[in-house]
Structure formats: C-alpha cells, structure tokens
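Let us work through a complete example step by step.
Step 1: write down the sequence.
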Amino acid sequence: MDVGKPLKSENDLKHRPLTPFRILRGLICLMVLLSTAFMFLVFFAPLAAVLLRACSIHHSRKAASLLFGLWLALWPFLFEKINKTKVIFSGDHVPAGERVLLIANHRTEVDWMYLWDLALRKGCLGYIKYILKNSLMKLPIFGWGFHIFEFIPLERKWETDEPIMHQMLLTLTNRQDPLWLALFPEGTDFTEQKCRKSQNFAAENGFPVLNNVLLPKTKGFYACLDTLRSSLDAVYDLTIAYKNSCPDLMDNVYGVDPSEVHIHIRRIPLKEIPIPEEEASTWLVDAFQRKDELLTNFITDGHFSSQITEAELSTIKCLVNCILVLTFTAIFIYLAFIFVWVRVYIALSCVYLASATHFNFRPSPLLNFVETWLCKDKCKKWS
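Step 2: predict the structure and record it as tokens.
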C-alpha cells in the first residue's frame, strides 16, 4: 500500500497580527492565570485534598471539582470572549451529567484545552481528568494541580504504565463521582515526521494508512474500557480541527490563532463497543480511520457536516466567575502580606503539594484505617 503525504490545513500567517497590545494583554492574562492557580492550590488543596479527604473521598472530590471548575472557566472566557475564537460544534448532541470516556485526535499541544469549552457547556468542567505524559507532572504549579485532581501520568512504557493506570482507574469506578476522563490514543501530538513514521508502520503491518491522524495506541484505551465499563454512560469520540492554523500555547495566550476551533462529536453508548480486547482495539482503529476521513473533508469544505447549536457562553456568567476568582486571589494575597501565620500556611502547603506530587501520595480516609485496624485485631483474636 502506498504511503500518502499528510494533508495540511494550516497557513503560515497568523489569523491576527502579534501587536504590542496583544503581547501586553496576553502577558497580563498569563500572570492572572498563574497567580490565581497558585493561590487556589496553596489555600484550598490542603483543605479539600487532605482534611476533607480524611473524612470522605467522594466529598473531597466534589469540593476539589467545584474549585477546579471555578478556576478552569477562566480559559474558555479567554478563548471565546477575550480572544474572540469561535468554537463550533457538530455531530451528536450530548446530554449533561454523563460519566464518559473522551477520545480525541491530538493535532497540537493545546487540543486538551478546548475540551474545556464543551465541558463548561455541559456543567462538567470541574470533573474533567486527563491521561497525560508523566513529564507534565514536573511543571511548577500545574503539576501540583494535575496530582490533586487525580490526572493519570504515564511514562509511555506499557510495562511500567499498566499497573499504575489500573490502580488509578480503580479509584474512579464510583458512579457517584462525576467523571470526564480524556484520552488521546495517538500518544503524542501530530507532526509530519510522526505521521510518516506511523504510515510506514501501518503499511508494513496491515493497518489503514492515515494522513491526518496517527495510528492509535490501543492498550490504554482498552484498559480504561475494561476497568470503567460498568460505571460509564458512553464514549465521546471527538475530532478537533482548526482555522487558520494549529495553535500553540502562546498563540492562545496572545489571541493570534486559531480563528475557529471545530469539534465534531460522536456519542457511542458502551454497549456498542466490543468487550474482547482485540475487537475493541479494532473498533478504535476504525474510529481513527473515520477521523482521518472527517479531517480530509474538513480541509476541503472548511467545516464538518451536521453542525449543531450549542449555547453561547454567557458573558455575564464568565465575568462573574472571573471576578469571583480574582476576589478570592486578592483576599489571599492581602492575608499573606498581613499575617505571618498565613505565610507559614502557604509555605507548608507548598511543601506538601511538592512532596505529594513527587511521591504520588494521596491520603486515605481515616475510616479505612479504622476498618483495617479492626480487621487485623479480629484476625489476631481468632488466630
């Protein structure tokens, strides 16, 4: 089978010029995002992820998700209201409040951010979790957040990743805990070099040769299905495309690209996905072949078919949320300047967050310790 050339949908020129005003505005937005993230983490994480978790994992997750959602909503506000990027949805309508596994193509380093625009509209923003590469856990501030909100880090070596992934997935099986678990089965972002390598592998091993996506890795996908199947409502198959070009993080910060983000949604009930691993793997490869066709048509037509109407984000709600986050942050900064004990609390919180992230530690509820102790005590009496 001939190996095709990856199709391109990007222009070299940015949609908007990078002016001094955009640079200044972007740096201010980035400073706000970093400072609010830091203050929310150091003030709230010990309370939600330590003290409350000692009583109940469920209530700890609810509190953490509420705080996470408040801060995370700043990003769709930046994308859609400040940068004026259009986010256009097509395909299936999805109901609010479902527990789902999301699979998406990985066109650029910021695809995962645009899932927030959909999650916010469905009231699930604080419940989104990612399966990501372990190196991201080392990022300052954000790595702490990834740990607190129970993202699943992988080394991209299945022998190492399998037990860690299985262990963490088992903690997410409670249907009372809302969940949007996002997985990028390609395992890395798309480049022409990676595409050629993927095409050569596919041609040599009898897989479909894809031009706009990489051949997906199936083991992580099957592990998610196998562990979470009984607690999920559906799989959301998302295909993401961009106009005018694929953005990077600073394009988003400065608001120079993209002009439009198109997200095609396919909702698949769990019963339609085969249970055996080999058949589920084939289903995933077929899904990415469908994505490849969708992206080819997008390059030709400039849009996906079957566009749907999702509600515009409310400017008033976005502003209220932003003001609330900024107010909390201002109060925290003020308290830190006035009181020594607040500075001590922040220092101790930073030590805990850094060490807990490094050692991958999460406290268990005290009730679990009591039950374990009672069980051991009973076993000693009977022995």
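Step 3: interpret the result. The longest strand covers residues 234-243.
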